[in-house]
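Study both lines:
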Amino acid sequence: MLTLENFKEHWEKKFPGISLTQTHFLLAVSGGLDSVGLTYMMHLLGAKCTIAHVNFQLRAAESTRDEQFVTDFANRLQIPLKVNRFETAAYAQAYKMGIQQAAREIRYAWFAQLIQEIKSDESGTPKTNKVVLLTAHHADDQVETVLMQLFRGTGLHGLTGIPETRNDAIQICRPLLGYTKKQIQGFAKEYSLTYVEDSSNEKNDYTRNLIRNKLIPSIQEVYEHVTENVLDTVARLKEAEAIVNATVSSFWKKGLRSRHGIETISIPHWKKVKENQTYTWGFIQSYGFKPSQISEVHKLLDAQNGAYIASSTHRFIKYNETIQIVSNISDLEHLMVYVGEGDLQTKNGLLHFETMEASKMGEIKKESHYAYLDADQLDWPLLYRTWQASDYFYPLGLRKKKKLNHFLGSLKLSPVVKQRAGVITMGDKLLWVVGQRIDDRFKIKPQTKTVLLITLLDRF
């Protein structure tokens, strides 16, 4: 049973560091049962909230209906509302991805932007330090996710399902993961809550819908309490994962050494666990390797001196009785740019800088070797340098914080080209991944008065 009282107790147990009264919550609200129920609970608890509704414009009149419902719902509860409409299908086509992936990228990028707006006023002065995104994923979603991961093939982490909290680019909490849809329906009935139904949920076009509508009901004919059983298993697997991670980390620390500035692992130490893929994966994943490379890494232990295997970021090199761990990024560049006119020679080609009035800019050239930046936002000098693993930016058109390593990986560049990629930065902000994409925060806008045009010439 889901009641206001046990929800509050559940919150205090699962999220002790997040105050219900001193935190600003951004609520992702579709208009469906789950998000409406969560919003109403937060409202009854007196939490400070803002509702965010994304209209993906994928279901014609139904999408318009949902937007209007959420608008009316927010007005009735007197909760601030943010609505945004996106051309999701066009975005998916432009970036060659599935509709579901596109919708996820779009909404989380926008949520991140809203959180920053809530944190600061128009002048940029901080208003609140803590803003947390709440989503209404529930226990049934968790079961579907775990089954999907199981059937696709996954390791231990994949079987732990959706995390209750995440704190990377934005902080996310999912306080309904411990409650089933039936329990949420009971809460909605008690408070006479109305909500809208997404007709696409009844179609089995997506794998999740197929599992929800056909597979799980069939399993329940044999195992009545399948949801509770899977959730209990997930809880035990999370405990097991924590134990495994601690054990694996402790093992590798004993064999890791630094010699002449190069990290090395003793091969005799590694061979103690050579037959255990969990140990190997626990080590190599932090160096950019993939699960499919585990067997090749194991072969390296008995290879000739000088043999190596590479990931997108590192190389493992056999040297006597050790494996050397070497970054692929070598021969780094670090060149200051002091003025907005002239040329800069880099190892990737010649960069030409030109400043102009926006009104005299002419037609914007869309080729990737041109970068148009809002010069009014720039503080000189700028810096051209080789990219680093810690870099991140907001790709143009996405407005979502993205690790540069992941962005470059998605471009399917050759290892050599990816290794020597250059960036233009201003302080700790990345302006342009040279020859690829600018940062959305520094694009030219209608109010831009001065434009910095950077052209990549004589690309090698």
About this structure: The chain has three domains: 4-227, 260-328, 334-457. The two ends are 65 Å apart (CA to CA). The longest helix spans residues 226-255.
